[in-house]
Design goal:
heterodimer; A: 114 residues; mainly beta; six-stranded mixed sheet; 12 strands; globular; B: 114 residues; seven-stranded mixed sheet; four-stranded antiparallel sheet; 53% strand
Chain lengths: 114, 114
């Protein structure tokens, strides 16, 4: 069984500042992957970044980076230089070794203020 | 490379009716997963199809079913619709390999049951 916990229902950040969205996970799989998705009000889930459990380095994709601390079972998303278009719901998800099934957290609603 | 497509985008049905939703994955992807998203339950996994076979199944009643065709396109069917089936239905496309990190979502089908 797998579980994702996102403890921040809502976050606010000023434009151009950095923000960290928290994610902790629990899994019994020895190998797993962690994902972050952005969901604007339109509903589409946009893939942001991926971290494999055996990856030696933290993943980065442009303004997105993942602060992966395996011993603490955390995979926090860092967004640098926030933009107004970053306002959306953000979901953390985990995939184990059984197929492509993703288990999602409850999400964090990020609001970027001008 | 075309993304994941879902049809229809919006649907209004009456209680007791049935509905069929369609998902066309990214070319070359063999796995299609379906998710239901509601404000109360969040994102929940319905099932995954890989090479025309159901590989994983979530905890949903038998009214929810699916299938996958030889071209990897997938359909999900909900029979005897209930008000609680009103949701955003998302499908995700991936290669389906155990260590694959590609998980891309379609725009979703928003189903309203009245």
């Amino acid at each position: 069984a797998q579980k994702i916990t996102q403890t921040q229902p809502g976050m606010f950040v000023q434009e151009k500042e950095a923000v960290t969205l928290d994610c902790t996970y629990d899994t019994s799989d020895p190998s797993y992957g962690l994902f972050w998705y952005k969901q604007p009000s339109s509903g589409e889930m946009i893939f942001l970044i991926y971290q494999g459990s055996y990856d030696q380095q933290n993943a980065t994709e442009g303004r997105y980076s993942l602060n992966f601390q395996k011993a603490r079972k955390s995979a926090n998303l860092v967004i640098s230089a926030s933009q107004l278009g970053d306002s959306a719901m953000y979901f953390c998800a985990i995939k184990g070794t059984s197929g492509s099934r993703l288990t999602f957290g409850e999400g964090t609603q990020l609001t970027v203020n001008p | 490379k075309a993304g994941v497509t879902q049809t229809p985008r919006y649907l209004i049905k009456t209680r007791g009716q049935q509905v069929t939703l369609s998902c066309s994955p990214i070319s070359g992807h063999r796995s299609v997963s379906w998710y239901q998203q509601t404000p109360g339950q969040g994102l929940q996994f319905l099932f995954e199809y890989f090479s025309e076979t159901q590989r994983n199944k979530g905890n949903f009643p038998g009214r929810f079913s699916g299938r996958q065709f030889s071209n990897s396109r997938s359909e999900m069917n909900v029979s005897t619709l209930e008000l609680g089936d009103s949701a955003l239905y998302l499908c995700a496309s991936s290669l389906g390999a155990a260590r694959s990190y590609e998980q891309y979502f379609g725009p979703g089908t928003r189903l309203t049951v009245t």
